[in-house]
Amino acid sequence: MAATEHHDSAADPAAGPAESAGPATGRDVGPGADSGADDSGTDLSGKTTVERNPRVARWFHAAVYVAVILLLVTGWWLLLGNEGDPSVVARITGVSDTDVHTVTGWVLAGLTVLAVVVGAKGWRTFWRESVRFQHGDGAWFRRWPAAVLTGRFGRHEGRFDPGQRVANLVLVATLLVLVVSGVGLALVSGGPAFVWFAAVHRWAAYAVTPVVVGHVIIASGILPGYRGVWRAMHLGGRLRERDAHRVWPGWTERTTGRTHTPRHLH
Ligand code: HEM
Ligand code: HEM
Which of 66, 185, 195, 212 should be mutated for ligand 1, with most atoms under 8 A from CB? Predict the structure, then answer.
């Protein structure tokens, strides 16, 4: 919730009357909130913000990542041959690593079914935006290694940048393989099917790990180019327009209705 946002002293003069910093609801506050198609508001320090992900997407994302992090920790613990030796998760919960893993695995499988059944529309948008590769994406990738530090990303028009689109496809594919093979492992208790599921499950675990680690490093905003983007998925799901414009220029312009980020946001 935006109420936890800190109030820095560099309040922007454009922030307007005091009531714009009033009870932070995470919704539009302050000037600009009612300017036509403009979906922007201001944060408590008066910087213009824009809503990136709706509440339902944020809660789904949070549930998935709690499950995936538990699965990664317990799965790797088992893979490294520590089955008899409780991991920190097993010690905290008092449940064996195998059981924590299997129960959390069922939770992730349930979330997947829920997403498909209840969130079909959201998935369609997510998928459509993730497979939309365009001319110019190659140039974006060439500039990317330097841009993560300088913030000078190549231009792209998507809701997701080209790197996110690749990550989305790999994440969805590998997580689906993990869910299917994991359910297989949980249901059969031996024989050639178990061996086959175990091999598939293990290889998918190898594939998903670097992608999740990379995503968390990027999305946490510790790299200068991605500073501030963590807010897109946390608290009110609103990030500063300046940060949004740097990473998703076309999307930000369409959302705010402004072709150029106002000078005071640079
Ligand atoms: C992020 C997702 C997941 C990751 C990274 C992951 C990783 C792993 C790893 C590395 C192992 C050990 C394999 C070995 O020792 O050869 C394992 C085992 C297992 N996983 Fe997963 N897994 C995931 C999701 C799931 C799901 C969704 C289920 C579904 C219920 C599941 C069920 C199992 C089962 C039953 C085992 C065998 C446990 C045992 O009896 O030793 N996993 N997993
Ligand atoms: C551990 C399992 C996780 C999975 C499977 C996952 C998956 C995803 C996916 C598929 C997206 C959609 C767009 C994109 O690719 O960026 C996303 C967005 C996002 N994730 Fe995660 N995530 C995980 C963990 C985290 C964590 C721990 C953070 C904490 C910083 C995080 C922060 C974000 C943010 C800020 C976005 C919004 C990006 C945007 O608006 O485009 N994620 N995540």
Answer: 185
Tell me: the pLDDT tens digits for 71-80? 999 999 999 9
Give the separation between CA 253 and CA 100, rounded to whole angstroms: 45
- Residue nearest atom 42 in ligand 1 by C-alpha distance: 182
Measured between alpha carbons, how far is 154 from 147 in angstroms, rounded to an integer? 8
The ranges assigned to domains in the chain are 55-224
Which superfamily does 55-224 belong to?
Transmembrane di-heme cytochromes, Chain C (1.20.950.20)
Give the ligand 1 atom nearest the CA of 198. Answer: 16
What are the tens digits of pLDDT across the range 236-255? Answer: 889 999 999 999 999 999 99
Q: How far, in Å, is the centroid of ligand 1 from the Cα of 37?
A: 46
C-alpha distances (whole Å) from 173 to each of 185, 218, 243 are: 18, 20, 29
Residues touching ligand 1 (Cβ under 6 Å) are 68, 71-72, 75-76, 78-79, 98, 101-102, 105-106, 108-109, 178-179, 182-183, 185-186, 198, 201-202, 205, 208
Residue 35 has phi, psi (to 5 degrees) of -90, 80
